[in-house]
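re: that chain from earlier
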Amino acid sequence: MRRRSLVFSLLAAAGVHAAEPRIFDAHIHYNAEAQAIYPPQKVIEILDRAGVERALVSSTPNDGTRRLREVAPSRIVPELRPYRKAGDSASWYRDPEVADFLAQELKRGIYRAIGEFHLSAGQTDTPTVKHTVKLAVEHGIPLHAHSDDVAIRDLFAIDPKVNILWAHAGMSAPAQTVRKMLDQYPALWVELSMRAGDVAPGGKLDAAWRELFLRHPDRFLVGTDTWTPSRWDDVQSENDFARAWLAQLPREVAEKIATGNARRLFPVK
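^ sequence. v structure.
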């Protein structure tokens, strides 16, 4: 409640209404645990209240993503997770069955990315990971990777043609590290879910992150990360908080990060 009050105070001071600007939320999960609490129509209502125009959605298992897409095909951008069940996040990269699973699922022709998956340094040199990169390049879709910067470098080393959406900006990577990565890899995009406290501590845009957004205005997306059911209660406040710090950037830069960059990465088909 305290954080939400701060959010609305910042919005009011910036002259920003809670429903503006629209947001493309680039990190939403609709996992099995959430489905029992939030039926698809309830999810759409949450996105409506949060001013989310479209959302990049993955789930464990993947049928949750497909359920949402059936209800709102113009709002839901589905991505294919290599997890078939809870617990796969720790072992998918070395599971030989995952490659065939991904190849078969991609035949549905609906998925716009592969992820979000967890992959750390030292885990990329496996046939499954290499095949995953190959599939992404062949299908012209990005990988959505929850990884440290070393693993991101290793993925690009497998095939420099792959596009990567870096989840959480590396989770703990400082702005300086993110800058180096963006300077080196033109096919790298960065989403900022779970990084609000670093990007705008106390609601004020951090100077290093501001400089980074101005340096690479075409490479950032915002997101929530509903990794656990309770996070669905935070979708509105998280996106309103994003609006508050976006309002501290030049308008054209803010609009790119709020929606424009995601629209380019995931154009309407």
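The longest strand covers residues 23-29.
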